[in-house]
């Protein structure tokens, strides 16, 4: 019986610790969460749509948070992870109608704050423009399995049967 009580106490302590750890990770109140019924954020201006893991209310405005399952490592965020977060910053600005000053990449071992100012806005807009240019080129459809699994298949005029 005492073993069962000890196990329950340990489980309760673990749950309390996990909740405190998550609260420490997310500064401020959560105002958006990528729950199954959450809306997709859209910026028509940037031809962009997406769903950040969280948006929290920080002291200086909304803060998009992207949670990564890996550790950050000594070299910091990958360029693609940073670009993804900056795109979410644009989406949050469009959705909330107020400037975003930073985003947060939350790794298993640490959080990395990523500033979002005019230079990052220009960088992200240029990256998105380059991606649109690539998407408008003729696609190779030599692999039917890849075509069937493509995320843009519904809108593609070149999709295989």
Automatic annotation (TrEMBL):
Pfam name, any one: PDDEXK_1
Name the UniProt record assigns to this protein: Dna2/Cas4 domain-containing protein
Necessary cofactors: [4Fe-4S] cluster
Domain called PD-(D/E)XK endonuclease-like: residue spans: 46-156
Keyword vocabulary terms for this entry: Hydrolase, Iron, Iron-sulfur, Metal-binding, Nuclease
Gene3D superfamilies documented for this protein: 3.90.320.10
Superkingdom to which the source organism belongs: Bacteria
Lineage per the UniProt record: Bacteria, Pseudomonadati, Pseudomonadota, Alphaproteobacteria, Acetobacterales
């Amino acid at each position: 019986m005492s073993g069962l009580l000890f196990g329950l106490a340990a489980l309760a302590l673990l749950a309390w610790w996990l909740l405190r750890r998550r609260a420490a990770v997310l500064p401020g109140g959560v105002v958006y969460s990528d729950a199954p019924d959450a809306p997709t954020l859209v910026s028509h201006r940037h031809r962009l749509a997406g769903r950040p893991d969280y948006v929290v209310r920080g002291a200086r405005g909304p803060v998009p948070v992207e949670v990564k399952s890996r550790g950050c490592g000594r070299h910091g965020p990958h360029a693609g992870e940073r670009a993804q977060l900056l795109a979410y910053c644009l989406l949050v600005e469009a959705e909330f109608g107020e400037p975003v000053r930073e985003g947060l990449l939350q790794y298993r071992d640490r959080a990395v704050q990523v500033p979002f100012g005019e230079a990052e806005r220009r960088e992200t807009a240029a990256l998105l423009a380059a991606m649109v240019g690539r998407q408008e080129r003729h696609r190779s459809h030599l692999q039917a399995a890849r075509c069937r699994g493509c995320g843009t298949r519904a809108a593609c005029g070149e999709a295989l049967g």
